[in-house]
Each structure stands twice: as C-alpha cells, then as structure tokens.
Amino acid sequence: MKSIWFKRTGWIYIPVHGMGLLITLLAIIFMVPVCIAVFRNGHSVSDDLYQIFVYGSCTAFWWKWIADKTS
Fold it and tell me: In whole angstroms, what is the distance from residue 27 CA to residue 10 CA?
C-alpha cells in the first residue's frame, strides 16, 4: 500500500499526511538560517538574490521531487 504524503492540485502540492507536512517544515526550517546569513553578510539586493537562488532552487527541487513521488 502506497502512502500518499502530498495531493497535487493544479501546479502545486499540498501536504495531506504528517510526513508531507514534516518535509515541508524541514524545507522551510532549512531556508530560514540560510536567508538570515545571506541578508546579514550581503552587500546588495542582487547579491542576496543570487545567493538565495542557489539554496532556494535546490531546496525547492528536492521538495518537489519528494512531493511528486509521494502524491
């Protein structure tokens, strides 16, 4: 029996299981200190966006991959 963690609604995935919510919270918890460190050490807005893009895109990719495989 396959456990469904996320439900696909259009282009987005909604967590419908505890593990889906946990994965979503872990992604957010990972990005918070990254953003804080980037904003603290950044020199300009474009500098900050470039640095956040690297971590944000990787985090979003893995979150979406997990959501796609468990929906």
Answer: 21
Q: Which DSSP string corresponds to 30-49?
A: HHHHHHHHHHHH-SSHHHHH
Residue 53: DSSP 8-state: H
pLDDT per residue over 3-55, tens digit each?
Answer: 899 999 999 999 999 999 999 999 999 999 999 999 999 889 999 999 999 99
Neighbours of 22 (CB within 10 A): 12
For the cut 90, the answer to whether the pLDDT of residue 1 exceeds it is: no
What is the spatial distance between Cα 61 and Cα 64, in angstroms, rounded to a whole number?
A: 5
